[in-house]
């Protein structure tokens, strides 16, 4: 059993894991539409598979991080892929964290401008201010902000999905869906969904190796993965309740929220902004930890410097950046998932 001293750390880890995955795509509902809802009720099988993978991989990453006493993701990548492939993946991951940070900052400006009618720079400035505060407080700041914000956005997503289901109800039968989801099959789609969303969690969770015990890490990975599964299932069910109308909307969750109550529109805008902010914080932390795993002044320098360097990228069109960079994230994530699923097993068998 976990003692009281480790309970707060466990909660912080679970929130951090969930917070790195529930980004703008999840909160908007578009990711879940493409990867799960388009398969009808079979998409729920995909949700179960994804939840199992998230639970297993989260626990595995934290377990390996503690065993390796890792302070950044480079050490974990070298263990999984070897020195040469690990170095290549390391370089690729650095660019992905930088690109992800730029995308999220761009998104915070777009949300404030499009949903609230406020200047784009205001959304970006508020996000930067929050990131600077977290970076200044190091790993403790990351864990604390996730404990505050992640339950908020998770509760908001589940509330909107629950209200949508309560108001509309599930159809007894989903009509034939002409459009196929990602990958063409519910199982492949669920695997690709996990691979697209594990790069940032690996970059963040691998920094915890010197701060937690194996038991705490494994519990956090399993609970976080199952929590994600519950949220995925609720949004998938709500999407099926509003099928096929949601196919016509870029932001399905906003459509469902508007059907329930117009008052939920600004609440939903805040939800997406928070989702982008927590992902941006995770990206900045992953980058800073890569170059300063020991924390301190160097960590703060790299964290703040990368935010300022990607600022020009934040003023590019949000959808353009997503189309340009997300395919790269998916391919890199697939390599990482395959390594996580196979390498530890082979190394264990050798021993």
From TrEMBL:
InterPro entries noted in UniProt: YkvI-like
Keywords, comma-separated and alphabetical: Membrane, Transmembrane, Transmembrane helix
Signal peptide positions on this chain: none
Domain of life assignment: Bacteria
Transmembrane segment boundaries: 7-27, 39-64, 118-136, 143-166, 186-206, 218-243, 263-287, 299-318, 324-346
PANTHER family: CONSERVED MEMBRANE PROTEIN (PTHR37814), MEMBRANE PROTEIN (PTHR37814:SF1)
Protein name per UniProt: Membrane protein YkvI
Organism annotation: Desulforamulus reducens (strain ATCC BAA-1160 / DSM 100696 / MI-1)
